[in-house]
Amino acid sequence: MAVLSSQTQQQELPCVPRHVAIIMDGNGRWARGRGKPRTMGHRAGVEAVRRTVEASAELGIEYLTLYGFSTENWKRPESEVSDLMGLLRLFLKRELATLHRNNVKIRIIGDRTRFADDIRDLLAKAEDQTRDNTRLNLTIALSYGARAEITQAVREIARKVASGEVSADAVTEDLIEQNLSTVGMPDPDLLIRTSGEQRISNFLLWQSAYTEFVFEDVLWPDFDRSHLERAIDNFAGRERRFGAVI
């Protein structure tokens, strides 16, 4: 990831969304199409992450949320999961200093209990070291599933109701949001999925109620700034009514 100067000129785009979320799909197909093992696709995908973080900061996006590893991904072959964990360790060790220097704040959402102790330590270090950064809020969803997130929020609220901390009548959408892992973040304005697939795959289900979707027919390792800008242009041409008539 290149060092980003605070003087970097933002490209003039018609309407830059405040929060962009991305389902990074297609690493395996990228590798298969080149006659390479899936692990090579994941390694190429890390380069796409670097490009996207850099471009997002330069374009003035405030929040970028990347779907890095889902709860369902644990079902993949053990060798592939092991390689993915190795890449995660490498990314955190190699990129943290650069992200911090570029004023990027890191936030991790998802169930950390299934990760090895050293990975949990690296995740905590990344969050702690960058907590005061302000240029770009980078959220990485790891061992994340939206249904599990909502279930956990409902369980916590039920506990509070049972203990008398809150009444049943006090359970509102705002209270549910306060118990989600994304508390304090704006909902995504734009969600991009690569590889041409058109589904949400258990990602930010609550938060995406009024999100605009763009499906890019490009495999994640090939995703670059031009694809991000094209998705933003697509977003800018839409009329967001949030259920109202304008």
Automatic annotation (TrEMBL):
Annotated Mg(2+) binding sites: D25, E212
Keywords annotated in UniProt: Magnesium, Metal-binding, Transferase
Any one GO CC term of the record: cytosol
Gene3D superfamilies: Decaprenyl diphosphate synthase-like
Keyword 4Fe-4S: no
Cofactor note: Binds 2 magnesium ions per subunit.
InterPro entries from the UniProt entry: UPP_synth-like (IPR001441), UPP_synth-like_CS (IPR018520), UPP_synth-like_sf (IPR036424)
Entry annotated with the keyword Zinc-finger: no
Annotated positions binding substrate: 26-30, 38, 42, 70-72, 74, 76, 193, 199-201
GO molecular function: ditrans,polycis-undecaprenyl-diphosphate synthase [(2E,6E)-farnesyl-diphosphate specific] activity; magnesium ion binding
EC assignment: 2.5.1.-
Active site: D25, N73 (proton acceptor)
Entries under SUPFAM superfamilies matching the protein: Undecaprenyl diphosphate synthase
Record GO biological process: polyprenol biosynthetic process
Needed co-factor(s): Mg(2+)
Family membership: Belongs to the UPP synthase family.
Subunit structure of this chain's protein: Homodimer.
PANTHER family: DEHYDRODOLICHYL DIPHOSPHATE SYNTHASE 2, DEHYDRODOLICHYL DIPHOSPHATE SYNTHASE FAMILY MEMBER
Record's function text: Catalyzes the condensation of isopentenyl diphosphate (IPP) with allylic pyrophosphates generating different type of terpenoids.
Protein name as catalogued: Isoprenyl transferase
